[in-house]
Amino acid sequence: MVGMPSAETKRAGSHEPETVRPTKEDAVAATGSELIGGPIGRRALPGTSWWTPVRVIVLVAIGMFALGMVQKLPCYDGAWFFGASSQYTHACYSDIPHLYQGRGFAEGLVPYFDKLSGDMEYLEYPVLTGVFMEVASWLTPGSGSIQDQAKVYWMVNCGMLMVCAAVIAVCVTRTHRRRPWDGLLVALAPAFALTATVNWDLLAVALTAAAMLMWARSRPFAFGVLLGLATAAKLYPFLILGPLLVLCWRAGRWREFGTALRGAGGAWLVVNLPVMLLAPEGWSKFYTFSQERGVDFGSFWLVLSHRMDSPPTTDTVNTLALVLMLLSCLGVAGLALTAPRRPRFAQLAFLIIAAFILTNKVYSPQYVLWLIPLAALARPKWRDFLIWQACEVAYFLGIWMYLAYTTSGDAHKGLPNDGYHVAIVIHLLGTLYLCAVVVRDILMPERDVVRRAGDDDPTGGVLDGAEDTFVLGAAAHPPQHVAHFDGPHVEWGNRGPSAGSGSP
């Protein structure tokens, strides 16, 4: 009708942020999109159909999760129970069915309260993960052989972990409003599909992803509560508070950090305190086990131990690993306080968790799940992400082939020590490579694909666009940024958008 604005005109006058299209700015994404018809056209109207980015990415994540379950099919058909080495040659091993009986769930024992037979004595997992495992056991029928029960237990856990995978996909997709399609990095990550059902790590990863979303939405207390719950499920998430402390220090946002810290401490105590008081010996098992555990799979400490005539003791490795981690923390803090522009929260969160993984005395293959959502937010570049993922897939295959070699007796099917050491080095180099490009982005903000598009720190919540109040050295770039809208030029400062001096 005459006088009615067209769809294009409506969009031109809209104040909705323009969605960044990976196929427009990323050569690898554009090439990969040819499999589904090529990059989106310039006349396409995003958001006009049911297929929103969140829905598409969640469905892709669930599909990849299901493919990961299919990859475990040889073990589900018997290799978990009747073939010690075949579960490794098929790369389908999972802790879940083995621990169903090994940690007393088949017998109805209560984690942390009931003592186990054997050397372990108590469940060696944090409390919230123990609750997750126990709930899955309640949903597992007690009829049939122990093997049948263990398979059903694995399936029940897969259903619960699939929910966690969907939560992760939603949270990463919604954390950066202008870059929802970066969530595809998580959904399509091959290491995510391969390792999702090896253990229960997805629970902590989902809670951490939800916490990151809450901080991006400037809800520090909700962030703290979710991060405290994540720490009650796995130890690593609390490390993210370190980078946040330094960023809030630089921006002078002490009140928000204090709110987050109270929320995290309170949530962790609510989960842990009852078990700590009523079953102190069972509750402490996770912490004593972590301290007493020797050098194990995947770490550079294992490579050194295999190649030394007199390997270091566990106490020595604990001390050295702690020193290296503290040095890494100081390095990240120094980077945050001296960078020409305040780093993005996701960048430092990725670096600190990567440092923990690199210096730790054990690297289980599912630990890659800790980094995948953070990597998608810190460095949303398909080439770098896929290089790292290729290294992680190589390690995933390497550890199972090594275990096949050590369990196949005289047949020696699999990967010997030297080959496994190569797989470990590949994993270490892949993680270091991604750390290096993130550090480069921090030191050279113009190379950061997020800031190059006009954003400051979309994952930073109250830090986004905030002025610096403490910097070691002179900042070369102001913190304010210009958001790229289809509508009028909009400047972003400390108090949000303003469309000129006359706006309210």
UniProtKB/TrEMBL annotation:
InterPro entries registered for this protein in UniProt: GT87, UCP010361
Subcellular location: Cell membrane
The keyword Membrane is annotated on this UniProt entry: yes
Alphabetical keyword list: Cell membrane, Membrane, Transferase, Transmembrane, Transmembrane helix
Spans traversing the lipid bilayer: 50-70, 152-172, 184-215, 221-247, 317-339, 345-364, 385-405, 420-443
Major location (coarse): membrane
Region (Disordered), start-end ranges: 1-26
Feature: compositional bias, Basic and acidic residues: 8-26
Domain of life from the UniProt record: Bacteria
Family per similarity comment: Belongs to the glycosyltransferase 87 family.
Protein name as catalogued: DUF2029 domain-containing protein
Organism of derivation: Streptomyces ureilyticus
Taxon lineage: Bacteria, Bacillati, Actinomycetota, Actinomycetes, Kitasatosporales
